[in-house]
């Protein structure tokens, strides 16, 4: 492993094929939930991948039964209680999305099992997203009591249309791998047993292709996302604003207590 990645201790990195880097969420005991340190590393690593002359393609996946269960409860609690943590997380959330968009190497996600929150950012933003049939994709923001920030507003409507995006983002209904492929949210749905093999084969094909052509094509296509930057910035600001209110506290409490949330019914907006 290159010393370039020595600081990324919270992510498992390996090379499954020549010039292919695989990044694995590796906390299977918590369904690969993302703590504060992991969130920081996940944000920053894309700059190093961008500058790595020995890498032509990247795979992102999860260890065990899940891709990623999203931000862990301690991270969410710190955002609720600490204004500095709230601001830092907001900055990182924005940087994570833009760093993935601007990374010059093609990114392939292999979505196995549950994919929520910060993990889902990379899963959905990947240039080619491949999920197993048992994948369970959930946005989860409104269930937590905050606006659908992260990657929701910048890419869901582009992938699956505004009607479907509104349905799944407002209700937090889960999508199976097959349904996610059917509505265009992911590139491909495959048998669970074939997921890693197909992801590696896809990465190898991209890694051995015409690099300038592939990278320039990615850059041009991602202008669809760059021009939607103001939508994204607004959604993340509203998400973070929500963490200052009663709904987010009730959302977190209901998750911790494993019960249905009881949100306040009156709202002045």
Offer a few descriptive terms:
single chain, 269 residues, alpha/beta, 6-stranded mixed beta sheet, Enoyl-CoA_hydra/iso, Enoyl-CoA hydratase/isomerase family protein, Enoyl-CoA_hydra_C, ClpP/crotonase-like_dom_sf
Architecture overview:
The protein is an alpha/beta fold. It contains 13 helices and 9 strands. It has helices spanning 36-51, 73-81, 83-102, 117-125, 141-144, 152-160, 162-171, 177-182, 195-207, 211-221, 223-226, 229-242, 246-256, and strands at residues 11-17, 20-25, 57-62, 107-111, 114-116, 128-132, 136-138, 175-176, 188-190. The strands form 2 sheets. A 6-stranded mixed sheet has the order 1-2-3-4-6-9, with helices on both faces. Strands 5-7-8 form a 3-stranded mixed sheet. InterPro entries: ClpP/crotonase-like_dom_sf (IPR029045), Enoyl-CoA_hyd/isom_CS (IPR018376), Enoyl-CoA_hydra/iso (IPR001753), Enoyl-CoA_hydra_C (IPR014748). It holds the Pfam family ECH_1.
Topology:
Layout lengths: L10 E7 L2 E6 L10 H16 L5 E6 L10 H9 L1 H20 L4 E5 L2 E3 H9 L2 E5 L3 E3 L2 H4 L7 H9 L1 H10 L3 E2 H6 L5 E3 L4 H13 L3 H11 L1 H4 L2 H14 L3 H11 L13
Parallel strand pairs: 2-3, 3-4, 4-6, 5-7, 6-9
Antiparallel strand pairs: 1-2, 7-8
Helix pairs in contact: 1-3, 2-3, 2-13, 3-4, 3-12, 6-7
Protein name: Enoyl-CoA hydratase/isomerase family protein
Family: Belongs to the enoyl-CoA hydratase/isomerase family.
InterPro entries: ClpP/crotonase-like_dom_sf (IPR029045), Enoyl-CoA_hyd/isom_CS (IPR018376), Enoyl-CoA_hydra/iso (IPR001753), Enoyl-CoA_hydra_C (IPR014748)
